[in-house]
Write a structure and sequence with these properties.
Two copies of one chain form a homodimer. Chain A is α/β, with parallel strands linked by helices. Chain A has eleven helices and twelve strands. Chain A has helices at 36-39, 42-57, 95-103, 112-123, 184-187, 189-202, 208-211, 216-224, 228-252, 268-281, 300-310; strands at residues 3-9, 13-20, 25-32, 64-71, 80-81, 93-94, 107-111, 132-137, 141-147, 150-151, 256-260, 290-293. A five-stranded mixed β-sheet of chain A has the order 3-2-1-4-7. Chain A has a five-stranded mixed β-sheet with strand order 10-9-8-11-12, sandwiched between helices. A two-stranded antiparallel sheet of chain A has the order 5-6. In chain A, a hairpin with a 3-residue loop joins β8 (132-137) and β9. In chain A, α4 (112-123) crosses α11. Chain A binds chain B through residues 74, 129, 131, 145, 147-148, 150, 152-162, 164-166, 177-179, 181, 243-244, 246-255, 280-281, 283-286, 288-289, and chain B through 74, 129, 131, 145, 147-148, 150, 152-162, 164-166, 177-179, 181, 243-244, 246-255, 280-281, 283-286, 288-289.
Chain lengths: 312, 312
């Protein structure tokens, strides 16, 4: 065996990577996700792309260990996808078996956030550790729990649904999941904006955010510039997220938290606000747990899906 | 191989069990824990007890798969105990290697709450499941996280420190761990008493608890008798614990929660108050997670330590 493929399926594009069995990426490319018509073309398009690459490179099937695939939806340990609405998939089916029969290769599937976590554990911010919690702060808050080098999928595919940890009893707005007071409502990009807009209404304080655009980026840029209003927003963000991560430590006690997603582009300053509140509630045994920024960006998924195959 | 031993070391007694390799207990007995003098006698006493039992039963070492041992303190995956103050152990040493050299048998060690969780997964309230969260409500709140049939020890031995999940920002009293607002301060036997005494001071409401003894038992007895004050205590207890368990579901998503410890003797009524609040904050994918009462009582530890050996 010399090669494997990592495939990260998103709502608009499919990212693909050809890897050697040491985990070095040889080539990466993208194709469009055709989610129309119930997403019937998604897997055939992927199969064509993989086979095309093998032909182009003169790679025989016997030299390929397999293909890993990450999809935006819950995936069971035995490869069933329940639904992946962003791909147009509305039926429960075994994505591993289906893609495997198209490719003539072993296929292993995982949830997209979980495989990104596995990628960051393997070659990113968590490299060298086997117990890693990955948190992605984007439009929503997602994540993945890696214990002993393996994804914790959970009994209902809800392992690592970090964004839906309940952190606030007094919340009138609904989370996308239907509950009230989920971490995602405060620690995502939209959550940071919500906190900022709420505080803007409550106070008269001077801030660059009052006249300009309010986004996670402008908030943390203002924090870096010493804007005291923006710092209050960061404190609230840090309190919700830091406390939630302290609770994760009391449950699975990772060696390292890896923080990724768009909001993490703010850099080390973000970790400062998370850690400040983390240490206040973390159990003494895990107060020194490391925090790292994610390193693989949008490639975390192809690394993680490749790892699904190479770890077999 | 026909046999194995399970050994659960407590501060006052050591519980021992002789098991067949199917996990059936053949005999169980206890010896005293001699924790004086830095606990130097604890392991020799255990070795003598095990060897004595093998002699008595005519069991050859070749017929014994090994001995599992649970200790009240953090235990690393490779068998190191950092400290176990209740046993007088104040030094870091490898308990597996030490007991193994005394017994001439393979030894596997674990934290006492974690091995109890493993026992309940194997032969107790979680039988049939591989992803189990065990919560023990006693003087404190302990627990264990079992994923894929294995204990989640954590990178600092703090996996399953459920009692130290932060659940209350407004708490002036300290938890035993030094933090403020840990689950243990509300959901343990002493926590239930704290909630009741606080409410007794805050209201004038008639209740059997105002004149009589206040304990977790009398509170839940009063709940069963329809005492509306006691029901308010149970609601607070249920809210703290149910919300914390919902958060555990968003992280590791177990198939079943098993509730044990002294407080769980209240029975099914206890689960009713936990579940009432669990469903309010649980992520939709895991709202139907099962709740069971623990079944093995004080024997959970010997079952779990036997399992450490038989699962090798």
């Amino acid at each position: 065996m010399k090669y494997c493929f990592g495939i990260d399926v998103g709502g608009t594009t499919v990212k693909l990577g050809l890897f050697d069995t040491e985990g070095k990426v040889i080539e990466k490319w993208e194709i469009k996700t055709r989610s129309e018509n119930g997403g019937v073309n998604v897997l055939p398009d992927i199969a064509e792309a993989v086979k095309g690459k093998m032909e182009e490179k003169g790679i025989a099937p016997a030299d390929v260990a397999g293909a890993g695939i990450g999809v935006p939806g819950p995936v069971t340990n035995d490869g069933y996808v329940n639904k992946a609405v962003n791909l147009g998939w509305n039926e429960r089916f075994n994505v591993e078996e289906k893609l495997s029969s198209m490719l003539g290769l072993p296929v292993k599937a995982g949830n997209d956030a979980n495989v990104a976590a596995l990628g960051e554990m393997w070659k990113g911010g968590g490299a060298g550790a086997e117990n890693v919690v990955f948190v992605t702060l984007g439009t929503g808050v997602g994540g993945g729990i890696i214990i002993g080098g393996k994804i914790v999928t959970g009994s209902h595919g809800a392992g690592g649904e970090i964004g839906h940890i309940h952190v606030e009893d007094n919340e009138s707005d609904s989370c996308g999941c239907g509950n009230h007071g989920c971490l995602e409502q405060y620690a995502s990009a939209t959550g940071v904006v919500r906190i900022a807009n709420k505080l803007l209404k409550e106070t008269e304080e001077e801030t660059v955010l009052r006249s300009g655009e309010v986004s996670a980026k402008t908030v943390f840029d203002a924090v870096k510039a010493g804007d005291s209003f923006a710092i209050k927003v960061a404190e609230q963000f840090g309190k919700y997220l830091g406390t939630a991560l302290a609770n994760i430590s009391a449950i699975v006690d990772p060696e390292v938290f890896v923080i990724g997603g768009g909001v993490s582009k703010a850099g080390e300053v973000l970790l400062d606000y998370i850690k400040k509140y983390y240490v206040l509630t973390a159990f003494h045994g895990c107060r020194e747990t490391r925090f790292e920024l994610a390193k693989l960006g949008n490639d975390a998924g192809i690394y993680g899906t490749a790892r699904l195959i190479l770890d077999k």
